[in-house]
Amino acid sequence: MNLKIAAFMVIYFASTLALAQSPTLVGVWEVKSAYYDDESIEIREPRQVKVFTERHVFYTYYDASTPPVLRVGHGTYTFDGTNMVETIANHSNEAIIGEAFSVEVEINAAGTEFTQVVDLGKYVLRETWQRIE
């Protein structure tokens, strides 16, 4: 009986530790690479940044104007480990305020990079971000 209890405790604590150390989006990230429909996009300087707290996201992005202008957006998000939904609270493009975007997310095991894939209908945006803080 004691052996079963001990085995259970070892398994329980190992699984709890593994869950506690799961990589998280919380932190500051900068864009490393980006692709529209598998075509590489030039990464402009200063690089785009995303900041995640437990519930909120703030980000910068370049618009399509010439020359490109660095813009901002922020909102809330939910993340279940593979799927994220960002709901826009404020944005340089007022037309998307209030919209929710579904994003497929994969965080590397070390928690130092994540890739997000957004299907925008007419094209697919794939970005890789690296943790800077």
Give a written overview of the molecule.
This protein is mostly beta strands. It has one domain: Beta Barrel (Lipocalin), CATH 2.40.128. The protein is built from one helix and nine strands. The protein has one helix spanning 2-20, and strands at residues 27-36, 39-40, 49-52, 56-62, 70-79, 83-91, 100-107, 113-119, 124-131. Strands 1-3-4-5-6-7-8-9 form an eight-stranded antiparallel beta barrel. The chain starts with a helix and ends with a strand. Residues 6-10 and 14-19 have low confidence and may be disordered.
Keywords:
mainly beta, Lipocalin, 8-stranded antiparallel beta barrel
In short, what is this structure?
With 133 residues, the chain is mainly beta. It has one domain: Lipocalin (Beta Barrel). The protein contains one helix and nine strands.
Topology:
Blueprint: H1 2-20, E1 27-36, E2 39-40, E3 49-52, E4 56-62, E5 70-79, E6 83-91, E7 100-107, E8 113-119, E9 124-131
Antiparallel strand pairs: 1-2, 1-3, 1-9, 3-4, 4-5, 5-6, 6-7, 7-8, 8-9
**Fraction of helical residues:** 10-25%
The number of helical runs is: 1
CATH class: Mainly Beta
| Alpha carbon gap, first and last residue | 47 Å
* Helix-strand makeup class: mainly beta
CATH architecture name: Beta Barrel
Integer count of domains: 1
Mean pLDDT: 88
Taken as a percent bin, the fraction of beta residues is: over 45%
Q: How do the strands of the widest beta sheet line up side by side?
A: 1-3-4-5-6-7-8-9
For the biggest sheet, the summary is: 8 strands, antiparallel, barrel
Overall body shape? globular
User: How many whole angstroms does the radius of gyration measure?
Assistant: 19 Å
